[in-house]
Amino acid sequence: FFFLAFWPVVTAAVMSVANLGALFDLIAEQAPSTAGFFEDLNYEGWPTFVRSILEKILPVVILIVLNLLPKIIIKLMVTFERLPSLHQVEIKQRNLLYVFTLFGAFIYVLLSGSILEQIDQIANNPGSIVGLLADSVPKQAIFFLNFIAGLCFIGFGIELSQIVRIILHWILGFIWKTDRQKRKIDGMGSVFLYGAHYVPTLLIATIGLVYSTIAPLVTLFAMLYFVIGYVTHKHNIAWTMVNPWHGGGQAFAGTLQCILIALYLKTIAMIGIFGFYELVGPPIVEIINLAGIAAFNIWLWRRYSRLFNEGALVDKLQESDGGKNNSAEDYHGLYINKGLQELKEEPNLAGVNIKDATKIAEVMAEEGNAPSLARDQSGQYLDGEAESGVPVHLQSKTE
C-alpha cells in the first residue's frame, strides 16, 4: 500500500520526461524568470532524432529501472513471511507484484501521461477529468508500444544471453576462492522463478487486451512478446535453468483472474472513450458486455472454487461421505506431495529382499524345518547354514 500511495508521484515525474515541451512551457509559465532560459534552450528546434530518444525511449528505460526497486522489496517481504512451501511464496509474490505493476506501470501512466498538457483545463473545470482521461488512453499507445518493445527485445535478449550470470560469474570468480563459493557462483541465477515471469507477462496481456480495439498495433507487439517469450523461456527451462518446485497447477487460478481483470479494464476504457465522444449505442453494448464478464467471473469461481483452492485431483477425503474425490483411483497417487509419499524399499545387496526371505522362512516353518534363532556367545546361529538350508544373512532377516 505504501508503494501504491507513493508511486503516482514517481510515475508523474517519469511521464513528464515524455512531455518535455509541455513541462518546459509549464515551468516558464509558473516561473517567468526562467522564460528567457527556455527560449534560449529552444527545445522545439532540437533534432527530431534527439527529441524522440528523450521523449519516447528514455521514459521507458527509467520506468523499467525504477520498477525494479519495489519488486525487490516486495520479494524480500514475502520471503521473510516463512510460508510453508515454495510455490506459495511464488504465488504470493506474483499477486502482490501484479497489483503494483498494474497500477505503477499501466494505470498511473494513463493518469499522468497527458496531465501536463491538460493541467490548465483540469484546474478550471475539474469535471472534465473523466473525458480527458478517456482521451489520454489512445495518446499513450506509443508509450506502451515502446514499453513492450523494450521488454521484448532488451529484456528477452538479456535472459537469452545470460549476460547477468556471466558477469557475476566473472566478477565473483576473482573474489570467492573456496570450492563451496565456486559452486555457489555456478548456481546463481539458475532457478526459473515463475512469480517473476508471470508479472510482466500478465501486464503485457493487459495492455494488449485494453488496446486491442483502440490501437491494434500495440496488440501485435504484445503477440510478438509472447512468441519471443515462449522461445526464450523454453530454452532457459530446458538448458540453462532449473525448477525446484511444482505447484500442481495452483497458480493457474490467479492467472485466469488477472486476465479477467484485463477484460474489465478493456471494457471500462471503451465505455469511457465512447462516452467522451457522446455516443449512445456503443456504451450500452459495452455495459452489457461488462455485465456478462462479471456474471462469467462469478459463475467460474462458484463452479471451480474447490479446484482453484486445492489443485487438480487432490487426494483428500470429502467431509460429507468420507469418500475420495470423483476421479480415477490411479490418479490419486500422482498428486500426493513428495514429502508424504512412501519411501522406496532400499535394495538388498545380498540379492534377496526381506519379503522373499520371510516367505522362505514361513514355508520352512510349515515343513518343520524352521531355522533356530538361538545363538552362541559369539553371536552365530547354532543351526548354521548346512543344517537349516538357509544362509546366515537370511536367518538374520527372518529374525
Describe this structure in words.
By secondary structure, the chain is an all-alpha fold. It is 71% helix and 0% strand. Helix 1 (2-17) runs antiparallel to helix 4 (48-66), helix 8 packs across helix 14 and helix 12 (194-214) runs parallel beside helix 14.
Give the helices and strands, then pairings.
Elements: H1 2-17, H2 20-30, H3 35-41, H4 48-66, H5 68-79, H6 86-113, H7 119-124, H8 129-139, H9 141-161, H10 163-175, H11 179-187, H12 194-214, H13 216-240, H14 252-276, H15 281-310, H16 329-332, H17 354-366, H18 384-388, H19 392-398
Helix pairs in contact: 1-4, 1-6, 4-9, 5-6, 6-12, 8-14, 9-12, 9-13, 12-13, 12-14, 14-15, 17-19
Unreliable segments of 5+ consecutive residues: 314-331, 381-399
The DSSP helix count reads 19
Radius of gyration: 33 Å
Shape field: extended
Largest sheet: none
Amino-to-carboxy terminus distance: 66 Å
How much helical structure, as a percent, in the residues?
over 70%
How do the SSEs run, as a string of H and E?
A: HHHHHHHHHHHHHHHHHHH
Number of strands: 0
What characteristics describe this protein?
399 residues, mainly alpha, 71% helix, disordered C terminus
Structure at a glance:
This protein has 399 residues and is mainly α. It is built from 19 helices and no strands.
